[in-house]
Specification:
Strands 3-4-2-5-1-6-7-8 form an eight-stranded mixed β-sheet, sandwiched between helices. About 40% of the residues lie in helices and about 15% in strands. It has about 260 residues and is α/β, with parallel strands linked by helices. Helix 1 (about 15-25) packs across helix 10. The chain is globular and about 50 Å long.
């Protein structure tokens, strides 16, 4: 497990899970880079206790025109079509990224691909391409991990981002829409060549709800890695835009880490 995508329906708590996983993994001695790839939601840096977002990775990679030019030079192909021939040149390590594009401590850092900031700016395609280039070029050392907080839904699969991901975590909340989308994400991740796929249940208020969710996911052949119960303090932190507080949820995530590292 080196490059992990956190995916799911909008509102399931992907940014919350990303934050809790990052802090728990840092406690285990890992160096964590969180990549905010959601072009709309602005609040991830607040959950981590930072005062501002870093400069955008789009700028680090040369801007939208440069990114799209690189994409045209190295078109996306499936692993079966051209194995080993789609890697983009000029690889780099975490230590090579200028400090202005990262915020955080030595053990936990945040990067942001970019945001839609004005009307008529155009689609988020350059941001999706920038994320692929960044993940492809980034070479990780031992005990270094990347957690990518994906935008809601499945568009990133259509863009081919998961070609550069080795683990997909599907966050599932107690709703039919979330369960149905989790099945689609599971199939798309398999079709993308991702080897490690698992679901984490979130906002689970009762044992009955947890049991029903387990039943539905097992029917769809989705591996379940763990459960995060509903935690009112997490909800309050999100409402106030503050650093996450929620001992129940945090402890649940700590219990998930061993199974995640074995995935």
């Amino acid at each position: 497990m080196k490059k992990v995508a956190i995916s799911g329906k909008g509102g399931t708590g992907k940014s919350v899970l990303t934050t809790l996983l990052a802090t728990a993994l840092e406690e285990e001695g890992y160096i964590i880079l969180i990549v905010d790839s959601d072009e709309s939601n602005p609040g991830l840096y607040r959950m981590l206790g930072f005062n501002h977002s870093p400069r955008e990775l789009m700028e680090f990679l040369g801007g939208p025109k440069k990114v799209m030019a690189i994409t045209k030079e190295f078109p996306t192909k499936t692993k079966e079509e051209q194995p080993g021939e789609t890697r983009i040149k000029e690889n780099f390590h975490l230590q090579d990224i200028p400090a202005k594009y990262l915020i955080g401590s030595n053990g936990l850092k945040l990067a942001s691909v970019g945001k839609i900031s004005k009307a008529f700016e155009g689609c988020a395609c350059p941001m999706g391409e920038a994320l692929k280039i960044f993940l492809d070029r980034l070479v990780l050392k031992d005990k270094e991990l990347v957690l990518v907080d994906m935008e809601a839904g499945v568009e990133h699969f259509g863009r081919g981002v998961e070609k550069y991901i080795d683990t997909v975590l599907i966050l599932v909340e107690p709703s039919f829409e979330s369960i149905a989308l989790s099945a689609k994400i599971n199939l798309l991740a398999q079709g993308s060549g991702v080897q490690n796929i698992g679901a984490i249940l979130n906002k689970v208020a009762t044992e009955e709800i947890e049991h029903r969710l387990h039943e539905e996911l097992v029917k769809r052949n989705i591996k379940i890695l763990g459960t995060i119960p509903y935690d009112e303090q997490i909800s309050l932190s999100c409402l106030e835009g503050k650093i996450l507080e929620g001992p129940t949820a945090k402890e649940s995530v700590r219990r998930i880490i061993p199974s995640l590292l074995r995935a």
